[in-house]
Amino acid sequence: xxxxxxxxxxxxxxxxxxxxxxxxxxxxxxxxxxxxxxxxxxxxxxxxxxxxxxxxxxxxxxxxxxxxxxxxxxxxxxxxxxxxxxxxxxxxxxxxxxxxxxxxxxxxxxxxxxxxxxxxxxxxxxxxxxxxxxxxxxxxxxxxxxxxxxxxxxxxxxxxxxxxxxxxxxxxxxxxxxxxxxxxxxxxxxxxxxxxxxxxxxxxxxxxxxxxxxxxxxxxxxxxxxxxxxxxxxxxxxxxxxxxxxxxxxxxxxxxxxxxxxxxxxxxxxxxxxxxxxxxxxxxxxxxxxxxxxxxxxxxxxxxxxxxxxxx
Length: 312
Description:
The protein is an alpha/beta fold. The chain contains nine helices and 14 strands. It has a seven-stranded mixed beta sheet with strand order 1-14-13-12-11-10-9.
């Protein structure tokens, strides 16, 4: 079952945010919010959190799965709303988020989306602007966050999409929060996105294989919702197959420089046509596919630099 509308997933998990920018409230005796979303979802978060009548003192952690702009943009708003909650992330994410240039970039991308959606008034009223993040506690592979009442969140290092990517697995619930370490579903749930190894392709495949080996009854993505039941595990194996198939296509097209460039543009157009990423324009989406292709080609990519340049 694919669920892309926020709401109650189980007695322990609430789906928050929006189908394009998903966050999750994981509840034990204490609680944590997994995923940092984008700042434009703050109005939805405000309503959702108010409607839960949830004791804010129980929220102990705000978990950043990776430091890309669309996965941490709402953290400043959440930290202001829950000032006692600790912000968690990997050591590399902590380093990245102390860079003023990164902070400026994340802020600009989030502000761009707020302006596009006409949410400036809501941003001012909720004080939801992105103004930087201080990671207060570094977490890594093997660490367990005990929320009480049998709810233990196991941290998994899953680099590949980014250098700093972390996933969360809750054995008691057989629940996985894979961030972008696996291809996520499109809106209808029947199709899945292209793989996105923006840091390292070999690590991306290894991380995906690790996730696919877990016993999963609920798979909660940070884009496009949740899979429950038998389909939760299948979505990970489907993602691995799509990744391997995409690798074969890239290698086949790499034999001809012009054909490879056409392949990049065609793939980017297919992503945009699916409306999976309304916050990406054509140039940016082509840039992402360009990066993914280069990561797949690895050392061979340097021989195709001229073919991978965008048209002027």
